[in-house]
Amino acid sequence: MNAENTYYELLMSRYFTGEASGDEISELSAWLEENPEHKEIFSEQKKIYDAVNEEMIEQQVDLDAEWEIIRNKISLKKPEGKKVSFVPREAKSNRRIIWRVAAAVTILLAIGILLRYVVFHPDSDIQIVASNDVMETRLPDGSNISLNQGSSITYPEEFKGNTREVKLDGEAHFQVTHDASKPFIVSAGDLRVEVLGTSFYINTHAPGGKIQVILIDGSVAAYYKNTPEEKIIMKPGEQVDFSPETKEIAATNQHEQYFMVWKTRSMKFENERLDRVIYTVSRAYNKKITLTNPTAGNCRLTVAFEGQTLESVLKVLESTLDLKVTQHGDEILVDGKACE
């Protein structure tokens, strides 16, 4: 079951029946804008609501009578100096019917959602998507996962059988709970990363279309699903780059220093080039930052940042090297002169 979708489908039912609060409507609106698939789910639920609502109201409510009541209320003259509240008894009766219909529709929608996921999809996977920021989640076995913005992980409600298998699309840090009897396997396309209990990092969208795996501690075996006999046993501190198209594997004992900067936002630069600093800051905050004058990239600086906001970081860079920082849509432009 996709727990996130279930929550928003229940929120939709409240919206359709007029019970959603202002905050709930804003939350639902933001969710709909995140993904075109969310709008498809909304459209599907609206059709169900309209179909059920139309049939029940036609059976129980005289629409002509309701309209006449509304017209009478509008044309009703109130005595001067007095506030009169007048609702015909028939209108009250029909209003109760409408509320009963709305309540019935809500119940039917809720039952439909439960049947959809519990009866027809008893073994559905759960998908967690880090849409707007870094997201932390705990798997059924107690393993902790940190997802970078734009990344997603898919896993079953319960790990059955002899393995614990999850699917990753994007960038994540894994802290796996040890279980020697049930290996933990990350599927990233054709690549498989198998562990018993360890801490490691995977990026399925590494530069050059590669899949990057960095082992922090413990031990992992990495291999392509069709050639498990050719597995690579990694050591702590080692980085392995896999090329899905060519099946080439490149291992090194030196990995990128700030591969986890999107999670920690901890950076310490010692006489570092500006272009490298900007690249790292861009990864830390998942923002596109462009150095408009490439020759300024050779400027060097020594500075440290620890969990600061992007605005604060940019102000420090701006004042330190006399840079000009401007916002252009979703992109941040940094301009400056070359250093001697």
Short descriptors:
single chain; 340 residues; alpha+beta; Jelly Rolls; Phage tail protein beta-alpha-beta fold; 3 domains; 7-stranded mixed beta sheet; 7-stranded antiparallel beta sheet; 8 helices
What can you tell me about this protein's structure?
The chain has helices at residues 3-16, 22-34, 36-60, 63-75, 89-119, 261-264, 274-285, 310-320, and strands at residues 125-129, 135-138, 144-147, 152-156, 164-169, 171-175, 184-188, 191-195, 199-206, 210-217, 220-224, 232-234, 239-243, 248-252, 266-273, 288-291, 300-306, 324-328, 331-335. With 340 residues, the protein is an alpha+beta fold. The chain has three domains: 3-119; 126-252, Jelly Rolls, CATH 2.60.120.1440; 265-335, Phage tail protein beta-alpha-beta fold (3-Layer(bab) Sandwich). The longest helix is centred in the first third of the chain and has 31 residues, at 89-119. The chain is flat, with a radius of gyration of 28 Å.
List the helices and strands and how they pair.
Layout: H1 3-16, H2 22-34, H3 36-60, H4 63-75, H5 89-119, E1 125-129, E2 135-138, E3 144-147, E4 152-156, E5 164-169, E6 171-175, E7 184-188, E8 191-195, E9 199-206, E10 210-217, E11 220-224, E12 232-234, E13 239-243, E14 248-252, H6 261-264, E15 266-273, H7 274-285, E16 288-291, E17 300-306, H8 310-320, E18 324-328, E19 331-335
Parallel strand pairs: 5-7, 16-19
Antiparallel strand pairs: 1-4, 2-3, 3-6, 4-5, 6-9, 7-8, 8-11, 9-10, 10-13, 11-12, 13-14, 15-17, 18-19
Please, how many domains?
3
Estimate the helix proportion, in percent: 25-40%
Provide the gyration radius in Å: 28 Å
CATH architecture of the largest domain: Sandwich
